[in-house]
């Protein structure tokens, strides 16, 4: 299958106008068997409760039946099981759709095919859910734009409920720009229309692509590639006076402008552009701010202090200085993200305080290490230390509520942590180190 995917990639790269007429046949028994084995073992089951283990009890028969139904055009994905996960510290929850195991197999097979076609089409401004790109790469490129380019204004945009409002007709129209295999497109359309189950009731989905679906990330990128990225590159940049830059990670994006009038003109045009494709700007979460080295000087001259800040990918970006007194963009964990993580951590400690303390330390250590890997970026270690201290305070609090008697004083607790230490934060990501496959953008 790797050879076939490489061939698709080569064809897509060499001919940007080429349409692919025969893709569904790639979803054969051998390939789908591989997809089944690649899926994680302990993922939550869908509405029918089928796990990976139960599915593989009759694996060959199940896969053969699945392939036959796809060939006969009778394969219909089951509705996704709707669950909710915490979204922020205020208790808001984000809906997730958990597909049936069989549907996960099909999606697992389709995602690499879609990636092979579209990866070479996607523009350099897009970083989310793409091979060899991540959030840190997006932050590094944005940092260069603000520090090294003539940027004085930031348009920080939030699309209102993007994944719930993807227009299915437009989605299929965008896919047909590259794919004209009716069988392959039919499967995608059925995934989009599959609906979801919540409290034993089936709900249809007339718009949107469910988060939790294995092909949702690539479909989201395709949608915004046509709606936003190409439009920004081919139309916005040609109609403004100064320079402009776009950095997008999935549906989260920031636009940088040299001139204020360009920033406001873009924002007005963006609202119209998104409305055309059934999307809407969340105006209460979207702002245009003065930001950058020139903005800092202007604010100081006007006696306004430092320019305002903006949040992107979990970090609050603010204007500052280097040790040499030169302008620098610095970033720290956003208060919203830190509060949300601390709330979830507190709830976990409360629910699991009965566990052996060494087990709690092991689980806390893994959680902290994952947090450090993302947030321990240049200039942010001090903020992460504050987070670590807050976690230790929570740990101490709940260990003293394991029974009616107080278990620990601070001194005894400190000795315990010396014997079973939690990991300490240290810088993991240098904002100025650009990986080779990203540096060409600049």
TrEMBL record:
It is an enzyme of class 2 (transferase). InterPro entries: DNA/RNA_pol_sf, Group_II_RT_mat, GrpII_Intron_Splice-Mob/Def, Mat_intron_G2, RT_dom. Residues 66-317 form the Reverse transcriptase domain. It comes from Salicibibacter cibarius. This is Group II intron reverse transcriptase/maturase. Its EC number is 2.7.7.49. Keywords: Nucleotidyltransferase, RNA-directed DNA polymerase, Transferase. One of its GO terms (molecular function) is RNA-directed DNA polymerase activity.
């Amino acid at each position: 299958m790797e050879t076939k995917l490489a061939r698709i990639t080569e064809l897509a790269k060499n001919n940007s106008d080429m349409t692919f007429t025969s893709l569904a046949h790639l979803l054969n028994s051998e390939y789908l068997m591989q997809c089944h084995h690649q899926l994680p073992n302990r993922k939550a089951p869908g509405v029918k409760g089928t796990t990976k283990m139960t599915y593989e009890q009759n694996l060959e028969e199940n896969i053969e039946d699945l392939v036959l139904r796809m060939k006969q055009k009778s394969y219909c994905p089951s509705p996704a099981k709707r669950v909710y996960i915490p979204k922020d510290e205020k208790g808001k929850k984000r809906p997730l759709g958990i597909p049936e195991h069989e549907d996960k197999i099909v999606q697992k097979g389709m995602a690499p095919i879609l990636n092979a076609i579209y990866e070479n089409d996607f523009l350099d401004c897009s970083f989310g859910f793409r091979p060899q790109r991540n959030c840190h790469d997006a932050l590094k490129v944005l940092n260069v734009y603000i520090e090294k380019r003539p940027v004085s204004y930031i348009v920080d945009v939030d699309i209102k409920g993007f994944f719930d409002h993807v227009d299915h007709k437009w989605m299929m129209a965008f896919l047909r720009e590259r794919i004209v295999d009716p069988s392959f497109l039919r499967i995608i359309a059925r995934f989009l229309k599959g609906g979801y189950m919540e409290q034993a009731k089936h709900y249809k989905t007339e718009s949107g692509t469910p988060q939790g679906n294995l092909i949702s990330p690539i479909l989201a990128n395709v949608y915004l590639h046509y709606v936003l990225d190409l439009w920004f590159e081919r139309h916005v940049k040609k109609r403004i006076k100064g320079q402009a830059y776009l950095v997008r990670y999935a549906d989260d994006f920031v636009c940088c402008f040299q001139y204020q009038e360009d920033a406001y003109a873009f924002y007005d045009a963006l609202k119209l552009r998104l409305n055309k494709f059934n999307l809407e700007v969340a105006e209460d979460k979207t702002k245009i701010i003065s930001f950058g080295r020139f903005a800092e000087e202007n604010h100081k001259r006007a006696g306004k202090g430092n320019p305002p800040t903006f949040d992107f990918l979990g970090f609050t970006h603010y204007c500052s200085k280097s040790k040499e007194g030169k302008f620098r963009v610095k970033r720290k964990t956003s208060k919203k993200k830190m509060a949300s993580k601390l709330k979830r951590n507190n709830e976990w400690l409360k629910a699991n305080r009965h566990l052996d303390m060494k087990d709690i330390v092991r689980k806390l250590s893994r959680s902290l290490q994952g947090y450090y890997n993302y947030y321990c970026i240049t200039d942010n270690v001090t903020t992460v230390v504050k987070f670590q201290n807050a976690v230790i305070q929570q740990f101490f609090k709940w260990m003293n509520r394991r029974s009616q008697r107080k278990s620990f004083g601070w001194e005894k607790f400190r000795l315990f942590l010396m014997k079973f230490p939690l990991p300490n934060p240290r810088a993991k990501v240098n904002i100025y180190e650009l990986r080779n496959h990203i540096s060409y953008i600049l």
